[in-house]
Fold:
Amino acid sequence: MGREDDIGPVHIEYNDEVAVVRLARGVTNAINLELVQELHNKFFSIGWDIPELYYFDRRNFTEFFRAFARLQIDLFTLPIPTIAAMTGHAVAGGCILALCCDYRYIAEGKKFMGLNEVKLGVPIPYPVDCILRSIAGTRIARTMTEFGEFYLPEQLLEMGIVDCAAPLEEVLPLSVEKAQVLGALPRNARAAIKRDRTEIVEAQILPHLEEKERTFLDCWFSPEARHQLEEQMKKF
Structure:
């Protein structure tokens, strides 16, 4: 596919003007601070690395949470086209990364996507909550965030969460092709159009980040969430 960079938990392959960014933290691609920082300096996964993050104190977890919030905003507002090629499950944190991209392609079959944070005793991170509402509308966002269920590709298409469901072997080539088509358009006009779409959502997010952060942290360290997180760790 051309030049490759192997950078810690993130692997990048270059195909002409398209960069294919792969998560490379084992089978599940669990999201920790190192992975978030690598992505920020430059996507699919089972979500946060709960067995690691569970033992963070409030100061260290706050560092992770702020970095993850910044990553959501930066990915969502990135002036170049972004396509999430989901060849595996994209749940919780993995779903969040996918929602921050411009387009989402998922493999057909038993591939799940969803936000189960409420079942862990925590709210949806505020940036992606606003992003999801801008993508799918309030009713779909309400259903996804308040019930915490996972959805199959055909359901996600009907909900307007994904743009394409394709055979597994076609997901990445179709995503690269989409990026090439978008990348061939006049750059300044394309970037301005994206900015018009994303700046309203960003303006909604930024004034409330500190308040929403405190709410999330209070929930994360609550006895109820501690119990749910301990149960979730048993599945890793």
Q: What stands out?
A: The chain is about 55% helix and 15% strand. The chain has one domain: 4-171+178-233. The chain has a mean pLDDT of 87. The radius of gyration is 17 Å.
